[in-house]
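User: Could you walk me through two proteins back to back? I'd like the raw sequence and the structure tokens for each, with a short line separating them so I can tell where one ends and the next begins.

Assistant: Of course. Protein one, sequence then structure:
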Amino acid sequence: MKISVKIVAALLVLLSLGAYRTDKPAYLLFNQKGKKISYKRMLKQASKADVVFFGELHNNPISHWLQLELTNDLYQLTEGRVIQGAEMFEADNQHALTAYLEGEMDADSLKKAARLWPNYKTDIEPLVHLARDHQIPFIATNIPRRYASMVFRNGFTALDSLPDEEKNWIAPLPIAYDADLPAYQQMLKMMDGSVHMQTPENFPKAQAIKDATMAWFIHKNRLNGTIFIHYNGAYHSDNFEGIVWYLKQLESDIKILTISTVESGQPIQIPEEKAGIANFIVAVPKEMTKTH
């Protein structure tokens, strides 16, 4: 049987197209050992935790979309036993946030009353609306930035003179501090030789007061039988340090699950230096568009 020239040409075209990758995943999920896993597996494990830390890259759309998906799925799976919390809201803005969630304040008023991040509209508001629509508590966990700035300039003792009312927006003083934790040591290395800092040791301390405060408000507001899902920059929970370390000081037997987001070249994989940084790792192409 003769094969026509047109059929041969068509087959050659198909074969040539097959030489190119047609699958371009927006992300891949890995467990702590670097094995590819399904979203379903991560969701199942998250549903067994007391606290889930979703470490994001602040300008990465996949981080924010997966935060929303995971929170909604946990809400459905647990029949509403979810509490939300975020680095992106500071503790002294809790009243305004709660008023908005309860319909006592509109979006414009919230914008005026709270120090919203520049990417609030695209990345954070969908999480807030999820809480509002399902009446999920949403906790402002971060320290007011002016107090972190005080520590950055003058160390922890700068907070001692604050009025008692303002100390309510910070983890109880004095906070524990381990300057030898690798994350804080890395921050010191970043500042090594900086001509702009007379006291570089205060740089990781400013990070620590944020971590301690976020851990404190998670501890203070979580309820037995619920899952507290917390959204924060990955650096705050990577390698089970930062907020995780402080929360473990408050509750040694708490069940914590961490998720981190990393950027990868092609094919998508975990960069060697990011291996094992979290229970689950969301690897996203470096070429992924940014939200800001």
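----
Protein two, same layout:
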Amino acid sequence: MQYKIAVYTRISIKDKKCNDETQSIKNQRDIIENFIKNNSDICSSDIFYYSDEGYSGRTFKRPYFEKLIEDAKKGKINCIIVKDLSRFGRDYIEVNTYLDKVFPFLNVRFISINDNYDSNNNKNKTLELDVSFKNLLYNYYSKDLSNKVITGIKNKARQGEYIRINVPFGYKKNSETKKVEIDEETAPIVKMIFEMVAEGKTFSEVCDFLNKNKIPTRSEFKMKNGAVKNYPHLKQNKIWRNFDLISMLQNEIYMGTLVLFKTKKLKCGHRKRIKSDEDEVIVKENIYPPIISEELFFKVNANRKKYAPTRDIKNIFAYKLKCGHCGYALKNTELKKHNEVFDKKYYCNSKNELYIKNCKNTHIKESELKRIVFNSFRNEILLRLEEDELKSNLLNLKTDLKKLSKEVNNLKSEKRNLYEIYLNQQISKDEYVIQKNEKEISIQNTQKQIQLLQEEIFALENITDENKLFEKYIKSSELTREMVEAFVDCIYLYDDAVNIKWSFKKI
């Protein structure tokens, strides 16, 4: 069998910081390449490389790991080799699922060199006990290591060290001493913003002043200093916005105080953060050189609630709407008649507020947008829920797969019998070679058909699983926030069209 090998390597942030050569990407590649070179059944294979740098083995949300799995599903690779199982992943249960279920289904061979594991030698068997035990240890080791790292970070913070990667706007990190220092170029901008707000200027007025006077933003300074290569938004529209000021005005570092761990993540991998307990918060005064006085900081933050960004939970399209022309989030306003709200309007105000000349003042009523999104969603559901046809196709494909598998087994049996016929001198050597080659070609062609069928079955079964979620909403009479959250990634509004980017794959 001709293999298309995926060489997968991974190092965590800890590995990078420790400069551990034994775990480096280069070392892992050298070991794997040497293994391939010294094994005759794979030494002539095509090789593809996948590397994740700075990613923990406890999560499988890694860019190149996800690409690896996607390529395996598409049949671009049919063999995966890693230095050891810990490089593949440290979640014992998840790793076992891939080795025992996913890869056999995709007909992908998996080799872990240091664990002496080769799925070709373990067919129809569960993961061997010693390998399972090793992986279980990796999992516990990873969790223990994570706790130690967090403890170490907290201890450094209590000693006044700045532990974050990026320093706040107005400061810079000394390349030699690694200490935080005042940036003479940007600190005056910070001080000016604090003073303007203290004088009673609104955030919009401050941003208006900064943008009119072309005061560079933090991102522009980062690009200028080579800290980032690409501006995260539109390169031509580097402007100050209200939330840039909110995060700045609430940061105690500007009066020389270090405050860490004010919030913490919820358990179970949830994105939401909650307020930390008092004993978890670290506060160290007079740690950094101050840009402003404590008096000015507390004057600006006297009424702190007014700076908190309001979460528009009543807005059905909250955090989903963007202008298709400039890329910025849309604003909304209530439409009233005789002092009663009858609708909402979403609109882009970048042209007026942020001086983006090439943008258009796009706008749409909420009722109209809800109708468009709801109808589009129902159409997608109806396409997905043609159950009879989907099940029929899946059944037919599985029937064809059984026939082809049986055909491969028959061809292999015929090939073995052919050798016995040759040994019994019933055919000549030349005839044997010709017929043997014909059988091998037939086997290879049939196996390719099997691989394509497996991919189709895998795709259809994924659609079937997703359809179970769609069924929940098929009888809905109107669009809800829950539906938008579950299925809409982003909505781009143009002056003449609405472009919906769904969070599921369209068929």
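The chain has four domains: 4-155, 171-307, 321-383+486-502, 386-473.

Let me know if you want the two compared in more detail.
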